[in-house]
Each structure stands twice: as C-alpha cells, then as structure tokens.
C-alpha cells in the first residue's frame, strides 16, 4: 500500500507541475544525439546514437554491488524487458545487429564507428553467457535468442546449432569486468571461482529488416520515438535508403567505487538518397519522370528519342531535414538531462564543408565552425535544419579504410563450386594484420586441402610468397551434417600495396524434400565473412581497430522438380480411390429386387392408403354384383383378390 501511495503521489506531482520534474525522479542516465554528414552523389549519412546507463544502486537485477550484496530488481530508464532477458539467461554481454543494403567503401570511406556497430546483411547476434558447463551455456544461448525473437519480431528462434558458432576469436568483450561474470558475487570473483564466460555467434542472412523490427527498437527508448532526435525515425524513410543498420549493445560497466552498472547502446545509421527523398514530397508513390523532364547527355553519338544517357546528378541543392525524413524533430526529450548550453552536450551535429550553408529553425547553437556545427534542442520547440549549396560534390573528406574486401562464388554446375575472397591493402607503407572469419552452412562441404593464398601487387602482378608467409594461423572446425556448420578463421598478414586472394573448393549437398524453402530456386543465403583489422598498442597488447563484413552469397543447390511429387501424389490417390471404391462396394453393398425395396421402405401412411383402397375396391365389386358378402365368409374370388392386394402391399 505504501508503494502504491507513493506512485499515486508522484503521478499527481507530474500532472500538476512540469514534466521535467518527473524526469528528475527517474533513475539512470540517458544521452541521445544525431550526426549528419553529406556524402558524394547527393547522399546523406545520418547517425542516431542513444545511450542508457542504469543506477549503480538500482536497476541491476541480480548484479552484485561493490559490497557483495545482491541488488534489487528495480528499473527506471533502463528497459525492463532487456534487463529481465539478460538476467534470466545470465548474459554478460549482448550485441544485436539489423542491417540491410551494402556499404560502398570506395565511395563513402570508413564505416560509421569503425564498423563496431555494423553487422552483416540480415540479423546477426553474439553474446557472452556465464555458465559452469558448455551444455548449460548452450541452453541459455537458445533461450536468449528465442526471447530476443519475440522482443524484436525477428526470426532469431531459427538460430539453432547449425547456425551457431562457439568461441570465435574475431570478437572480444567490450566490458572492463574481465573474464568473470557480473552475475557472480565479487568475493567469488576475486577468488577465481566465478562462472566462466562462453561466447556464441549466430546470423540469419536471409532475414529481411523492416518496420516491425524498428517499432520494438524504438519502444526501448525512454521517449519511445515521440520526442527528441528519435522522432525522425520513420520506417517509410529509413527503409527507403541505400544502406541502414540498427545496433543494440548491452555491456556492463564496473568500477571499484560504484560497483557495476548496466550500459545499453542503441544506434541507427542510415544512408539516404536526398534526391529520391525530395521526390517523395511531390509524389508519394514512386514513378518514373516524364520524358520531357529527363536530363540526357545529347553529346553522345547514340542519343535518340529512345536512348538516353543520364547527366550527372545536379550540384545545386536546397533542402531541409524535414524534407528528407518527412517530419521535423519534436521537442527535446526531457529525460536527457544534459544542459542545453553545454558545448559537449549537443543533440544535433552537422559535418560539412565551407561551400554548404545552414539555416536552423528552433534550437540553440552550441558550437559552429566552417566544417562542423552543433545544436541543442529546446523543450517546447520543433527543430529543423536547412542545407543549401551550389556544389553538392564538395563534402567532408572520407578517410580511406585500412582494407577492402570482396567475396564471390566460383565454379559452375550443381555438384561442386568454390569461394574466392580478395583482400586489398591500399596502404603504401604499412603491413596489415587481420583476422578473417567465415561460418559456412553444413550443406557446403569445403575441402581445406584446396585452400590457396595468392599474393599479388596492386597492378595484379604476382608476388613470390608462400601460403605460410601470409596465413599465420588457421582455426578450423569441420561440419557435422544437419548438426553444425563449418567454422573457419584465418590470421593473415598482407604487405603494403598488395592483394591477397583466398580460394577453396566445396561440394554441394542434396537436401531432403522438407528442407527446401518455398522459393528453393532462388538459392540459399551464405552468411557474410567478417574481417577484423588488428593493431598493436604501446604496451604490446593487440586491439581491434576496424571491422567490416563482406556481402552475403547466394548458393544454388541441386533442386528437384517439385511438380513430380505432386503428380505422383495425384496419380497414387486416383488409383487408390478407384481400387478402394470398387472393393468397398463389393463388400458392403447388398443386391435386392426393386419391388422388395419399395415394399420394405414404404411409409406407414402409404401402406394404410393401399389397404383402404383395396377394401374400397372389394366393396365396390360386391355392390355391383348385388350380392353382399356373407359375414365372415367372403367369396372365393374376393378372397383371392384380397390376398393378391395384400401381397402387393
């Protein structure tokens, strides 16, 4: 009753006074920001960042504090749905990715956040789980992906043993707790008797990311997408982009003074086509432009009324943020308690060149230079930014990624094939050390003795180098048919200005009929490869500097003619129906005369009418002969007629 009265009192205060007073009553810390950066070819990179820190004295579920006492399961800003999942499954760290499209490294440069919050095509998830035994950790992993499947409306429940890879070295934990679990008592943690951590990785490259994944993603935010920079996240605009990625990271943060806190990071990175977004303003339904509005290069020799070579994209642009996203930024999310005038606490920041001019509507300018301008939002004002330039090709310089990678299928036929991966080191001075990770489905049977590594210069000139000089280490776990896939991880070193071509052969497997998807002729998606660039720190340790993924592959397997089973079923059913029907009729049907059937099944009223009619005929015959029958002794003819009528009846 006391707790109920406290909540009623707090609700009354929130209704009578400003809502910002209620924000002070919330536990935890919330930070949100938006970075905007124009890209070549009239594209725009928008990076949304949301961070939630729980209180060290609450919201930790079964996380232990600095004194070893178990903390109460109280939640404020930190979403209870995520907290209960990671607590029940003993998840030490969780990383979830939803990605669609292809990042053009040559055109757009480095991935946002150095690829740390970017996943492969589809859905990708990996987590560190605390457990004493491997079987217990695996069961908790399946419980985790099933819970996330329901929370985010995704098909993560299909991540089974054949799509799971345990303990790959391409992933390292981000927390500072070490190898022990935050769900372990600190006393046991210091005594090295805590539960060890188990890493599991799974992916679904076939999964399509859509609005039903974005909606629960926004529901985890304190303002639920109704205020702050998250109000721009409209599914119709986000999923009409060239490339988009959603990330959710759960990482504990611990220190000796305040104990452990839960830290959840949510990021949305999207590359939008500005011209296509502006066309939606005038024509919500996409349609080709009229013939007279096409801008063609008439200098081409093949130009005609039916052939048009398009001119480069227009350079003079004038657009607003609301034109691209379809709405303005609503008032500031009040749960972000940072000061509006603090230089380090901006809400929206733009990265432009001096040839771009900005105009704003609402908000406050926190800092402004020729290449960067940052703004903070007000509580009750909408916010919008206008961009105008006479040369849209002038954008901020994109840093060159440390490596480029491309992956493709080789071979032909339905029996075997091959995979080829080309890794390019564009640096003119530095040798790159990296780890390349592949997880192949069980129906791809690779032959490791065919693994080849060919080194060549940027001009495709072969370089004399053995495979051992390039491939420093190999981690390989073979497949088990219908149980687990192939796990392959290579530690590589690529010299400057050179290309490394990795290739191997594999066999294709004929699946059971029930194992083919409805669109089997489309092919089967192979998860993308993961490339992690290593750098050596000053203290001799190795850190992960940059991570990128290849595109997923489409594998064509031997596919049967699915019409033949249908034809066999129809033919067999027809023959069985004819044979069964004939035998059933012979065994069950009874042959009788028609007269017997009519007499046997005649209704009672019909029998009564026939008897009355027979008596009437008898009396009529007797009257005509003027000889009434003697009582009890009818004539012989009359008796015979009566018997014949009775027999007919």
Helix amount = 10-25%
Mean pLDDT figure: 83
Please summarize the sheet with the most strands: 11 strands, mixed
Strand order of the largest sheet: 5-6-4-3-7-8-2-1-10-13-12
What Rg, in angstroms, do the CA atoms define? 39 Å
Q: What share of residues are in beta strands?
A: 25-35%
Low-confidence stretches: 1-26, 57-72, 185-193, 631-636, 638-643
Helical stretch tally: 15
Kindly, what is the distance between the CA atoms of the first and last residues, rounded to a whole number of angstroms? 89 Å
Structural class given helices, strands, pairing? alpha+beta
Q: What is the 3D shape?
A: extended
Provide the fold topology.
Elements (H helix, E strand, L loop, with lengths): L1 H15 L3 H6 L3 E11 L3 E11 L26 H9 L2 E11 L3 H4 L13 E9 L3 H19 L11 E3 L19 H5 L6 E8 L6 H9 L15 H4 L4 E13 L3 E15 H9 L34 E4 H5 L22 E4 L4 E6 L2 E5 L3 E5 L7 E6 L14 E7 L5 E10 L6 E9 L3 E14 L9 H4 E7 L8 E9 L3 E11 L15 E3 L3 E7 L5 E8 L3 E3 L7 H26 L5 H7 L3 H21 L11 H13 L1
Parallel strand pairs: 1-10
Antiparallel strand pairs: 1-2, 2-8, 3-4, 3-7, 4-6, 5-6, 7-8, 9-14, 10-13, 11-14, 12-13, 15-16, 16-21, 17-20, 17-23, 18-21, 19-20, 22-25, 23-24
Helix pairs in contact: 14-15
Question: Could you characterize the architecture of this molecule?
Answer:
By secondary structure, this protein is an alpha+beta fold. It has helices at residues 2-16, 20-25, 80-88, 105-108, 134-152, 186-190, 211-219, 235-238, 274-282, 321-325, 467-470, 563-588, 594-600, 604-624, 636-648; strands at 29-39, 43-53, 91-101, 122-130, 164-166, 197-204, 243-255, 259-273, 317-320, 348-351, 356-361, 364-368, 372-376, 384-389, 404-410, 416-425, 432-440, 444-457, 471-477, 486-494, 498-508, 524-526, 530-536, 542-549, 553-555. Helix 14 (604-624) packs antiparallel against helix 15 (636-648). The longest helix has 26 residues, at 563-588. The protein is extended and about 140 Å long. Mean pLDDT is 83; it is low at 1-26, 57-72, 185-193, 631-636 and 638-643.
């Amino acid at each position: 009753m006391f707790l109920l009265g406290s909540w009623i009192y707090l609700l009354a205060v929130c209704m009578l006074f400003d809502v910002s007073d209620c924000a002070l009553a919330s536990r935890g810390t919330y930070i949100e920001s938006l970075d905007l950066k124009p890209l070549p070819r009239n594209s725009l990179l928008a990076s949304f960042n949301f961070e939630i820190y729980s209180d060290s004295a609450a919201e930790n579920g079964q996380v232990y504090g600095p004194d070893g006492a178990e903390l109460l399961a109280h939640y404020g800003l930190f979403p209870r749905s995520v907290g209960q999942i990671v607590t029940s499954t003993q998840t030490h760290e969780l990383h979830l990715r939803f990605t669609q499209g292809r990042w053009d490294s040559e055109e757009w440069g480095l991935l946002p956040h150095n690829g740390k919050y970017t996943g492969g095509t589809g859905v990708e998830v990996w987590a560190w789980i605390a457990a004493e035994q491997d079987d217990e950790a695996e069961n908790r992993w399946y419980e985790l992906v099933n819970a996330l499947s329901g929370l985010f409306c995704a098909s993560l429940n299909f991540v089974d043993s054949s799509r799971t890879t345990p303990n790959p070295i391409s992933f390292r934990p981000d927390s500072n707790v070490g190898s022990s679990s935050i769900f372990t008592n600190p006393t046991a943690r210091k005594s090295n008797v805590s539960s060890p951590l188990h890493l599991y990785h799974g992916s679904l490259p076939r999964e399509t990311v859509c609005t039903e994944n974005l909606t629960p993603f926004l529901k985890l935010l304190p303002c639920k997408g109704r205020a702050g920079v998250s109000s721009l996240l409209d599914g119709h605009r986000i999923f009409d982009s060239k490339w988009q990625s959603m990330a959710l990271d759960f990482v504990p943060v611990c220190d000796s003074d305040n104990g452990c806190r839960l830290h959840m990071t949510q990021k949305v990175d999207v590359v939008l086509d500005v011209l296509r977004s502006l066309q939606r303003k005038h024509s919500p339904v996409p349609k080709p432009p009229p013939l007279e509005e096409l801008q063609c290069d008439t200098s081409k020799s093949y130009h005609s009324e039916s052939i048009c070579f398009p001119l480069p994209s227009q350079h003079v642009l004038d657009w607003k943020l609301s034109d691209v996203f379809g709405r303005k930024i609503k008032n500031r999310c009040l749960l972000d308690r940072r000061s509006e005038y603090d230089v380090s606490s901006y809400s929206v920041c733009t990265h432009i060149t001096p040839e771009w001019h900005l105009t704003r509507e609402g908000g406050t300018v926190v800092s402004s230079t020729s290449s960067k301008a940052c703004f903070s939002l007000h509580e009750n004002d909408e916010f919008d930014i206008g961009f105008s330039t006479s040369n849209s090709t002038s954008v901020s310089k994109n840093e060159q990624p440390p490596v480029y990678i491309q992956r493709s299928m080789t071979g032909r036929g339905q029996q075997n094939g091959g995979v080829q991966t080309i890794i390019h080191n564009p640096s003119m001075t530095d040798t790159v050390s990296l780890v390349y990770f592949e997880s192949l489905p069980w129906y791809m049977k690779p032959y490791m003795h065919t693994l080849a590594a060919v080194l060549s210069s940027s001009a495709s000139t072969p370089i004399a180098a053995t495979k051992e000089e390039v491939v420093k280490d190999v981690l390989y776990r073979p497949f088990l048919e219908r149980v687990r896939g192939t796990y392959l991880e290579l530690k590589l070193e690529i010299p400057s200005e050179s290309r490394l071509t990795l290739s191997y052969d594999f066999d294709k497997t004929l699946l059971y009929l029930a194992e083919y998807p409805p669109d089997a002729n489309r092919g089967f998606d192979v998860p993308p490869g993961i490339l992690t660039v290593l750098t050596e720190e000053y203290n001799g340790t190795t850190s992960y500097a940059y991570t990128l993924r290849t595109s997923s592959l489409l594998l064509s397997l031997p596919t049967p003619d699915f019409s033949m089973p249908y034809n066999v079923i129809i033919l067999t059913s027809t023959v069985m129906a004819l044979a069964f029907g004939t035998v059933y009729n012979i065994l069950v049907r009874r042959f009788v005369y028609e007269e017997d059937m009519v007499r046997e099944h005649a209704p009672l009223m019909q029998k009564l009418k026939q008897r009355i009619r027979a008596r009437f005929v008898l009396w009529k015959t007797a009257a005509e002969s003027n000889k009434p029958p003697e009582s009890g002794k009818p004539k012989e003819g009359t008796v015979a007629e009566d018997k014949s009528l009775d027999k007919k009846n």
